[in-house]
Specification:
Structural class: alpha/beta
Largest sheet: 7 strands, mixed
Number of strands: 18
Distance between the termini: 11 Å
Strand content: 25-35%
Bound molecules: zinc ion
Helix content: 25-40%
Shape: globular
């Protein structure tokens, strides 16, 4: 098959790779219905994270089971499945607590920007959809696999409650779906921080009640103005820089919650400052597996349409164009069709 390999900054190639094979009896092979480029793929693309050797890319996926190992009990070929970026057994104590990304057997699932993918711990990792979904649902099911699941975790970690005031830092795809998640969880006021017109429009469509363009200290001052000097109950941090993290912490009210899902790059927190902020901090790699059944149902019931976050659809062999468009912020997020 041909698949996506990153060689270094701005060097993404679509080239011959061996077809994936079952390596363990708990594996499954799936044929992808769709795949996509993640905001986190842009860190190595921009050279902000080293690429030591040519690396197969992609970790967002849904598709049809082709083949299962002999120990796979709950899945069979032909089923439509959605998974997430870390394989998990979904049964160890950590998984039982709902933190499947820290599963005792966890394994990163890489190489999904391809026609076929090997998924470890298939019984625990994959969630089968009862019937093969209509093609119109594919973008939203694809979004569930990472970007919505991550926005959802940000909102859960930020303790979004009905009637609360929520701020979303970051207008990438995760931030936009963090807005959608906060809306689903009943936030009354949702303030999106964005200065890009198409993203502002999508934020409003997903449920933002206010959009502000200021950032950093000015952004925090604006949030304080809008909340009677208090700060927000919940803040979703969906970027991962020092500025965005401090913006999120300062925008939360005393006793408020910050849910952070932007992969930190160069973020350091000052203990003294943190001590006097009085905020709850919770975040990390989203345990998307915990939310898959609920989010798949919301999509198939037509309650949410997170697939709208894909504003560029390309054939998989044009994957390099997808990276370029996202890097230049021409596209919010690229959907790739094998
Ligand atoms: Zn586990």
């Amino acid at each position: 098959m041909k698949a996506t390999v990153m060689y270094g900054p701005r060097d993404v190639r679509f080239e011959d790779r061996p077809d994936p094979e079952l390596m363990k009896p708990t594996d499954a092979i799936i044929r992808l219905a769709a795949t996509s480029v993640c905001g986190s793929d842009l860190w190595p693309y921009r050279g902000l994270q080293p690429t030591d050797e040519p690396t197969p890319m992609g970790h967002e996926y849904c598709g049809v089971v082709e083949e299962v190992g002999r120990d796979v009990k709950t899945l069979r070929p032909g089923q439509f499945v959605v998974g997430s970026f870390f394989a998990s057994d979904n049964s160890c104590p950590v998984c039982q607590y709902g933190y499947q990304t820290s599963c005792q057997q966890t394994e990163f699932v890489g190489g999904a920007q391809a026609p076929y993918l090997r998924v470890p711990l298939a019984d625990g990792t994959l969630v089968a959809v009862a019937e093969t979904p209509d093609a119109a649902f594919i973008p939203s099911l694809q979004a569930v696999s990472d970007v919505l699941g991550t926005g959802w975790f940000a909102a859960r970690a930020a303790n979004v409650q009905p009637g609360s005031t929520t701020v979303v830092v970051g207008d990438g795809a995760v931030g936009l779906l963090g807005v959608l998640s906060a809306r689903q969880m009943g936030a009354e006021r949702i303030i999106a921080m964005s200065r890009h017109a198409p993203r502002q429009a999508l934020a409003r469509e997903f449920g933002a009640t206010d959009v502000i363009t200021e950032r950093g200290d000015e952004g925090v001052a604006r949030i304080m103005d809008m909340t009677g000097g208090l700060g927000a109950d919940s803040v979703l941090e969906c970027v991962g820089t020092q500025e965005s993290m401090m913006q999120a912490i300062h925008a939360a009210r005393p006793g408020g919650h910050v849910g952070y899902v932007g992969v930190p790059h160069g973020v350091t927190l000052d203990g003294q400052q943190l001590f006097f902020e009085h905020v709850h901090l919770h975040g990390g790699p989203a345990p998307v597996r915990q939310y898959l059944p609920e989010l798949i149902d919301l999509v198939l019931d037509g309650a949410i349409n997170p697939g709208k976050v894909f504003d560029l659809t390309l054939p998989l062999d044009q994957v390099a164009e997808g990276y370029r468009a996202m890097d230049e912020r021409i596209a919010i997020k690229a959907l790739l069709m094998p």
